[in-house]
Amino acid sequence: MIIQFIVIIFQQLIYSRFFSGKSDVDTCTMFSDRTLINRRNVTSDTHSSYRANRDFLSVVFQSRVIAAAMKVLGFEDQSGMPTKHQLPKFELLKKSEKLECLHELAAKVVDEYVFQSSSVVNDIVDSVLTQQEKDDLLQQQELTPEGRFPCRFPGCDKSFKYNGKSRRSHELSHEPPVQLEEEPPPLTTSKPVSPPKETKESDDAFNYNCSLLTDSFLFFNFLDAIKEGDGARILRQYKYFMLYCKADGSHSTKYALECLYQFFLVYALLSPRDSERFTWNRSVNNTGQKGTNIPLDEDTEHSNNFIKQGIKNLGPNLTEGAVKRLSHAEKSSRSILGKLDESIKRATKSGHHTRGSTARDLDELVKRAVQFDIFSEIEGRTYKHFHDFQRDRLDNDNLKASSVYQWINKHKRYITWGIRAR
């Protein structure tokens, strides 16, 4: 799957959930933040305004991280000192010790506002494992070639679709009745009944901003994995992205399926050598500097744009052979043009997008987030548009463990049959 396209889809999932033109009256939502800092180039359609939307999301994400850190550490304002955590004297610490301290403080923020005590992902995994055990138990019994349960009386050719009451009643009708060994108790995917808890009104502002913080962490972690060329981390992000697309229902079914086929390739279909190449050959570094990798598909687009310049100059001499020669000479042509520009001291543009200072916008967003106290759970605080906002996007009917398990197994069978769903 094309990584750059996945980045756009991932960002679109965030905007479709958190960004709405009707939510301007709800304080500390993305649209109200857009109004506050006057980002009029930000729209709900990520495909047409990806760069503007990504830069805006970055500012919003930074403001939420700062506000969450101030709440956890006990800062009254950005220039104050923490009251809930004693900071060491950083000027006396080594670089590794400063990094360790930063990780410790960051973990406090993540544990407080990103991870929940009852994670839906853990429940999904546990339920899938239970369903796997149940199916394994059924597979241990003898079945007909059609996958049906045969009557266990010698000589009887009757079979049943289910191993239930009809099968047992038929076996007892024989003379003598079929005597069975004691069967193990059936497995169930139902959750243990927990004691009733006191119901309290939810806080829409708290749930909204905690959820926004969680999804933004995933999104920018994915971008960072691409920049670092970390193929293993990219694959881990695909696992979450698959669940996100599956939870989104029919809008993102094909994207969830593409993520699933990624794992089929890595863990089953490709050889170990090709699997390793597929995992780590996702990005390219053209500068030799750290953290400057770009996706291979984006690099291919740059290559196509360079070749198109030569094709445009061919005029009426445009032929298939001429285009092939231009393509084969791309690397040497780039080298010659680069040395020529260097010799005549011609200033060339780097190709990087210029970015203005966001300090003022960031300061405005942090001030309002702290003033509205978005990371304190206040009972009964509601939004008008995002009313009864659900904190965990994976906690919905589209992501039931049994359906996910069956969906995965169905496409595993498609692979064995040599077909691929679209």
Question: Could you outline the blueprint of secondary structure elements for this entry?
Answer:
Elements lengths: L2 H16 L11 H8 L12 H24 L21 H19 L6 H20 L9 E2 L8 E2 L4 H8 L31 H25 L2 H17 L5 H17 L2 H9 L2 E2 L9 E2 H19 L5 H9 L1 H14 L15 H14 L28 H17 L5
Antiparallel strand pairs: 1-2, 3-4
Describe the structure.
There is one protein chain. The chain has 422 residues and is mostly helical. The chain has helices at 3-18, 30-37, 50-73, 95-113, 120-139, 165-172, 204-228, 231-247, 253-269, 272-280, 296-314, 320-328, 330-343, 359-372, 401-417; strands spanning 149-150, 159-160, 283-284, 294-295. Strands 1-2 form a two-stranded antiparallel ribbon. Strands 3-4 form a two-stranded antiparallel sheet. Residues 184-194 have low confidence and may be disordered.
Q: Please state the structural category.
A: mainly alpha
* Topology, number of strands: 4
Q: Give the CA-CA distance, first to last residue.
A: 13 Å
Counting H and I runs of at least 4 residues, what is the number of helices?
15
Q: Please tell me how large the radius of gyration is.
A: 29 Å
What is the makeup of the main sheet? Answer: 2 strands, antiparallel
Shape: globular
Q: On the 0-100 scale, what is the average pLDDT?
A: 85
